[in-house]
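Changelog-linked ticket: pyridoxal-5'-phosphate example.
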Amino acid sequence: MLIDNFKVEDWFNKYEKDAVYDLADTCVESLSINELLRISQADLSVFDRKLNYGDIHGSERLKQGISSLYEDQEPQNITVTHGAIGANQLVMLTLVEPQDKVVSIIPTYQQHYSIPKSLGADVKTLVLKEENRWLPDLDELEKLVAEDTKLICMNNPNNPTGAIIPEEMINKIVNIARKSNAYILCDEVYRGLNHTEEHFGKSIADIYERGISTGSMSKVFSLAGLRLGWICANTDIIKQVNKQREYNTISVGILDDYFASIALENKDIIISRNIEKLLIGKRVLTDWLEKEPLIDCVIPHSGTTAFVRYNLPVKSEELCTKLQHETGVMILPGSTMEYEGYLRIGYGNNFEKLEKGLGIFSDWIRKQI
Ligand SMILES: Cc1ncc(COP(=O)(O)O)c(C=O)c1O
């Protein structure tokens, strides 16, 4: 299967291990196993379990925990996958056939346009604009969605912009999808990290009968190392997905299943921890933005990243390569997400490094002008 290079992942593979100040990361500082055990006060009887395949589609306890993140979903609406990356891929392998029409809203995780393209679909992209505060232009979407469009792919809350599509707008997107009976795949891997009091926005699975939500333990629960995600949709879609899944997953590891289950049972504690960290990180970022005249940004309201615009006569890839080479500060170039003149900064990880790294970045900028 021919497929384009995954630009963001390639960038991480090339630069992450040498970064002194990693400002490209999308996780809130990860939890250790011991921290998770302390938070959940779990006993360790799981270590007596035989390492067989476990529950093939995910344990009932896990699926119960995942369904608790939704308003109106039951364990039978869930199937468990290898991360959200596995979830997104599985949905596309299940639904998309050659010549199918797919509309993908960018910037986003590259899976959402490169996989359907590699499957032979006709992929159109709706390009989000900063002047619209990174929200989709619905007139444009309406023009892009044909009467036989099969799938609309979106990511809400959005990586890299941190924008949240408001519920009324999601309803309008659903109305557009309904006209062509299109599925909506909404990558909700950052859902649960809204910086406002209500951390979870509405899920597409709770709004639209052909809505498919993907999520994972990686960002909201700071447990990317579990490699555990899920698909949540109506039981007919889950049945179709599981048919495909038999060829690609078997099951997730029983330890991953267990650790994810206890994390979900303690979701309020973990999410409060993460929001607290994100708000501190966002403060560091916004203080820096106020002092840095050559960088501007629509302040994110959710998630872990900001998509900042810079005013320097240099391409983003060249800027990031030179910056990291000369200072050790790693930032993601917008070109890896199909945008020139932008950079993605993650602010959920280590604040001392964030503050120091941003300061070094500003000093470096002064030397370029
Ligand atoms: C929007 C989005 N979807 C999916 C993923 C993959 O996440 P996971 O670690 O759950 O596979 C990422 C990771 O950065 C992401 O940003």
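Closing comment: Example verified and attached. The mean pLDDT is 97. DSSP finds twelve helices and 13 strands in the chain.
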